[in-house]
Amino acid sequence: MPELLIRLSAWLAARARRPESEAGFGQARSGQVAILFAVMAIPMLFASGAAIDLGRRNAAKTQLDVAVDAAVLGVITQKTNTLTDVMLTNARTQFLADAAKVPGVTITSFVLTPAPGATQVGLTATYTATVRTTLGSMMNVVTMKIAGQSASVRNVAQYIDFYLLLDNSPSMGLAATTADIANMKRVTSPACAFACHLLNSNGTENTKDNYNIAKKNNIKLRIQVLRDAVANLVTSAKSSMSLTQQFRMEMWTFSDIQTRLIQLTSSLDQVGTAAAQIDLAYSYQDQRDSQTAYERAMAKMTSVIPASGTGVTTADPIRFLFFVTDGVQDTPIDGTMSNASSGFKINSNRFISPISPSTCQAMKNSNIRIGIIYTQYLPLYDNDFYNTNVKPFENNIGPLLKSCASDGLYFPVSTDGDINQAMQQLFSAALASVRITN
Fold first, then answer.
1. What is the pLDDT of residue 2?
2. Where would I find the Putative Flp pilus-assembly TadG-like N-terminal domain in this sequence (predicted)?
């Protein structure tokens, strides 16, 4: 159109310079100039009208593109892995309401196409519409067509059940740090790094035992650090959820007996409250030390935890066992021990050894992922029992626990290490191990 106008202008200018004998515009009296300008005004008017209508069309398309983007994102950002009919209906209603605000626009089609998958959730929306013209209607162009689309995709988030198996046997009464151990030995007689928790013969609390001495002297024990670490784990889980009720937790403590502090629940606040119950098991009056029964505990958890799922729905979650222990079982003998050659049978009902990885295999076969925090066992080289029954396998304690753990989910903690930090690292590693990428 601009090129045509330029040519017409040049032609008119040339005609205006011609002599009267050649009927130039400058001297013509026949009215040709008026007629020619009237003829030229029509395409110029049409061109101007087309420009105005094209601008209105582009403005309308921009507004509709924003509306379709908003409709798609309104669905895809919801905390769910499933796109329901209700969500799609709401998206349609939202788009049509936004489109109705655009002057002169009529929506002729709007199609939403979900793209569900095992690893991703996606949605595509396409629309067609018309926009009324103004001057274009004089050329029989009553409407102009518009079309557009928007698409979004995201990775599915996994639903996860966490089962916590926490060693609360008397050995978890060890003072938490080197400084705490020194203080514990200073305030006890005979000097002892462990806060043994005792009952009187009548079943009442022995307020003079090492456990209460530690409390009175503000000496932190491993069991207290573990309690704090679990509370902080709950806080991290609450802040990490990208789906509603994405995480559930169940919590157990064990020594030679096993106690479920809270059943599997999506109410993480209740789990945080239950964490306050984590405490040291009482030592027996007859001084039996066989109070760390791995095989009992692992067999129980194998029977409790269902096979792990895909994590895509609440009915099929991925399942983790978080196992915190000092790595040495001192256990009553229940039939035949699974790895009798790894440790020592102290008497007819007492066996001491590192863990047997075979006790973890049944859970692994069910795709249950096992994360282990090893609060490293304190060597007692001034103790004859330790030198005879533990020292021979002390170098195997950590490696065998690591063999029990799933890949990348083993975290050892030294005497001066931070159980809380290890718990946070385990949680982060657990989430990373199930994160789906494009």
1. 43
2. 31-73
Strands 328-331 and 344-347, bridge-based pairing = unpaired
Q: 235 is written with which tokens?
A: 């806080």
| Burial grade of 152 (CB within 10 A; 0-12, 13-18, 19 or more) | middle
- Using CA atoms, how far apart are residues 333 and 114, in angstroms rounded to an integer? 57
6-17 pLDDT tens trace: 444 454 455 555
Indicate if the alpha-carbon torsion angle 288, 303, 269, 434 is positive or negative.
Answer: positive
Residues whose CB falls within 8 Å of the CB of residue 75, separated by 6 or more in sequence, listed in order: 83, 87, 88, 90, 91, 123
Q: Residue 20: which residues within 8 A CB-CB, separation 6 or more? A: 26, 27, 28
Cα separation, 214 vs 91, whole angstroms: 61
Write out the two tokens for 246. 């994405």
Calculate the dihedral angle through the C-alpha atoms of 354, 358, 363, 367, rounding to the nearest 10 degrees. 110
Cα–Cα distance, 374 to 370 (Å, whole number): 13
Q: What is the pLDDT of residue 122?
A: 87
For the chain, the helix, strand and coil percentages under 3-state DSSP, each to the nearest 5? 45, 25, 35
- H-run or E-run covering 144: strand 143-155
Look at residue 5 and tell me whether its pLDDT is greater than 90.
no
Is 24 a residue whose pLDDT tops 50?
A: no
Q: How many CB atoms lie within 10 A of CB 146?
A: 22
Q: What average pLDDT does the structure give for the chain?
A: 85
Cα–Cα dist 317/158, whole Å: 7
Q: Which of 429, 177, 169 is nearest to 290 (CA)?
A: 169
44, exposed or middle or buried, with CB in 10 Å at 0-12, 13-18, 19+? Answer: middle
Cis peptide before 190 (omega within 30 of 0): yes
Encoded amino acid at 417, one letter: G
**Interatomic CA distance for residues 238 and 273, integer angstroms:** 14
Q: What is the CA radius of gyration of the chain?
A: 39
Amino acid sitting at position 305: I
d(CA 232, CA 195): 24
Tell me: the pLDDT tens digits for 237-258? Answer: 999 998 888 999 999 999 999 9
Report the residue count for the chain: 438
The DSSP secondary-structure symbol of 310 reads -
Angle between helices 32-76 and 85-99 (to 10 degrees): 150
pLDDT band at 31 (very low <50, low <70, confident <90, very high): low
CA distance 165 to 295: 13
* 258 token code pair: 């096993």
